[in-house]
Design a protein that fits this description.
This is Ubiquitin-conjugating enzyme E2-binding protein. Pfam families: HECT_2 (PF09814). GO terms for molecular function: cyclin binding; ubiquitin conjugating enzyme binding; ubiquitin protein ligase activity. By secondary structure, the chain is mainly beta. The chain has three domains: 2-100, no CATH class; 116-160 and 170-270, Metal Binding Protein, Guanine Nucleotide Exchange Factor, Chain A (Beta Complex), CATH 2.170.150; 282-412, no CATH class. It is 14% helix and 37% strand. The protein has eight helices and 27 strands. The chain has helices spanning 97-100, 151-154, 172-178, 225-230, 282-297, 355-358, 372-385, 409-412; strands spanning 2-4, 7-9, 12-19, 24-31, 40-43, 49-54, 57-62, 73-75, 84-90, 124-127, 133-135, 142-145, 192-195, 199-202, 210-214, 220-224, 235-239, 242-245, 251-254, 259-263, 267-270, 301-308, 313-331, 340-350, 365-370, 395-396, 399-405. Strands 3, 4, 9, 22, 23, 24, 25, 26 and 27 form a nine-stranded mixed sheet that branches. Strand 15 and strand 16 form a beta hairpin. It is elongated and about 70 Å long.
């Protein structure tokens, strides 16, 4: 065994991923020393586990997909000594995935919790950090999903009247009131909650325990008052090279509607009075944001940037490539023995650039903006996730390789 900074490091690192499209299980084993005649790799009789033995140490992982029942099978170790072992095994037409990952028989689309159809008039919204109730149960009588990203641009293509009706502008005022006209704008009314993939939009009067503070010359943020008052004066790093007072900004004051746009990762929800309030990990929300942006923009590469709102320029940017949007993996370095549903992300940090130049970096690259804190969290999560991968799998050409956990159906199975 090795010890680095007093942390135990096994001599064997096992990693497996289920390549669903080609029904293949890819397995990598990284050894601290080269293999020898005593090195063994064995599949269990039920096809659930892989065990590797090397120099007196034995490590096993539960595979992300079962290979079916058979006798114990010993995999062939290369004759030439090597520190890196690779195996590719075929998976049958109907793998027994439910045994390896209870939620691995899943719908392939991006799962997004807390959309309008899942919420009720009893739904209450709280701060995920201090649990202060922001929107009380019964406050929102109606929930509506916001239009998909880019809906405003589609206004240019709308007809001002039906093609088979006379061209009459007499009803333009009526169209404006109903939200059909090209110059109509989104409004938020008390008692109505508007829902997007990553945000809620509420009328200010529907929200309690929030105060608005300027965070720079162009932007104000809703602050969770109880959290802010308890942590007044304390500081923590929020972006490389900067410090800010802890004030739990959980969204922005939307200038077009004058409503509060609150970020879902900062919230917890009690869907009804019969359910307890719960939130989800930021990691799953961030991966969902990547998947949503990729789907809406029709790209697999995204330029992520955190902006300096006082200048309107991005101050840091990262290029990402959603190399495998839906992957089920197992790793001996994970904090769980269960298989994990992830997005495999290739990423590299880019140079600062004007927002206008982002679109010139290739027609196949989209854009996605995060707050400074979310951008830093994304980068930190990707960097730390490299520990799940064997050393040689952490780089692909000029890209770093990271993994982000995805939402699975078990996450939303208790919703009504």
């Amino acid at each position: 065994m090795n010890r680095q900074s007093d942390k135990y490091v096994p001599n064997i690192h096992l990693y497996a991923e289920h390549l669903q499209n080609i029904r293949t299980l890819s397995i990598q084993a990284s050894l601290s020393t080269v293999s020898n005649q005593a090195t063994k790799a064995t599949l269990s009789a039920d096809g659930h586990y892989l065990t590797v033995e090397h120099e007196g140490e034995k490590v096993a992982i539960r595979l992300p997909v079962s290979l079916g029942s058979h006798g114990d099978a010993t995999l062939t170790i290369p004759a030439a000594p090597t520190k890196d072992l690779t195996f590719r095994l075929n998976v049958g037409q109907k793998p027994e995935t439910h045994d390896a990952l209870s939620n691995s028989v899943h719908k392939p689309e991006n799962i997004i919790p807390w959309m309008a159809g899942e919420l009720t008039p009893e739904t209450a919204v709280s701060c995920a950090t201090c649990h202060a109730e922001i929107v009380r149960s019964g406050q929102i009588r109606q929930w509506k999903d916001l239009p998909s990203e880019g809906w405003a641009e589609m206004m240019d293509f709308w007809h001002c009247h039906k093609p088979d009706e006379p061209h009459d502008h007499a009803h333009e005022a009526e169209n404006v009131s109903r939200g059909f006209a090209a110059n109509s704008r989104l409004t938020v009314r008390p008692g109505m909650g508007l829902v997007g993939p990553m945000d809620f939009l509420f009328a200010a009067e529907d929200c309690s325990e929030l105060e608005v503070r300027p965070c720079d010359s162009r932007k104000v943020s809703p602050i969770c008052s109880p959290f802010s008052s308890r942590n007044a004066g304390s500081k923590e790093p929020a972006f490389p090279g900067r410090e800010v007072t802890i004030t739990k900004a959980i969204g922005v004051l939307d200038p077009s509607t004058e409503g509060f746009k609150l970020r879902k990762p900062c919230l917890s929800i009690a869907v009804s009075q019969k359910t307890s309030s719960r939130g989800y990990s930021h990691e799953k929300w961030l991966s969902s944001a990547l998947l949503t942006a990729a789907e809406s923009q029709g790209v697999m590469r995204l330029a992520l940037h955190a902006s300096d709102w006082s200048s309107g320029h991005p101050i840091s940017m990262m290029h990402t490539w959603l190399f495998a949007p839906d992957l089920v993996i197992s790793s001996s370095a994970a904090d769980t023995k269960a298989a994990i549903r992830v997005v495999k992300v290739l990423y590299r940090e880019g140079v600062s650039a004007d927002i206008e130049t982002l679109g010139k970096m290739g027609s196949a690259e989209g854009e996605l903006e995060f707050s400074k804190e979310e951008w830093c969290e994304m980068r930190s999560l990707l960097d730390r996730s490299a520990e799940l991968l064997p050393g040689k799998a952490r780089r692909f050409q000029q890209w770093n390789v990271g993994l982000l956990r995805r939402f699975v159906e078990d996450d939303v199975s208790d919703m009504p």
